[in-house]
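Supplementary Methods. Inverse-folding protocol.

Structures were first reduced to a discrete structure-token string of length 135. This string, shown here, constituted the complete conditioning input.
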């Protein structure tokens, strides 16, 4: 059964970069893209009439986005009982300790710095967890 990923990222080049990096993992998944937190929230909470929408297994979330940033998005979905158990990985250019602490306090599963580089030790650990969740 294919695993589902919701990628919430406003930069089209970063979307393509994430897709390429995930394809290298040779896992069976499908990916849906939202370009801001508002659209991501709509995907998770609105279901077409008569259809039971399946939730993603993993969300990969940018922090700095228009309309609703990643931290605001996290706070909202963690308040939904049906959404708070989805595994979430932060994808960001921010190396700010405040951002990392803010997202960790909201229960994220991993923190990936852009550009994607799965060669450093922290990224390897995050990649291993992401691979396990998508296997």
């Amino acid at each position: 059964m294919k695993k589902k990923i919701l990628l919430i990222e406003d930069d089209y080049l970063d979307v393509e970069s994430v897709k390429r990096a995930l394809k290298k993992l040779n896992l069976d998944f499908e990916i849906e893209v939202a370009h801001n937190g508002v659209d991501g929230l709509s995907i998770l909470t609105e279901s077409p009439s008569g259809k039971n929408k399946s939730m993603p297994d993993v969300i990969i979330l940018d922090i700095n986005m228009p309309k609703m940033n990643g931290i605001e998005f996290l706070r909202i979905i963690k308040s939904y009982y049906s959404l708070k158990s989805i595994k979430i990985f932060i994808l960001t250019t921010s190396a700010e300790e405040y951002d990392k602490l803010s997202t960790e306090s909201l229960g994220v599963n991993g923190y990936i710095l852009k550009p994607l580089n799965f060669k450093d030790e922290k990224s390897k650990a995050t990649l291993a967890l992401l691979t396990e969740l998508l296997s």
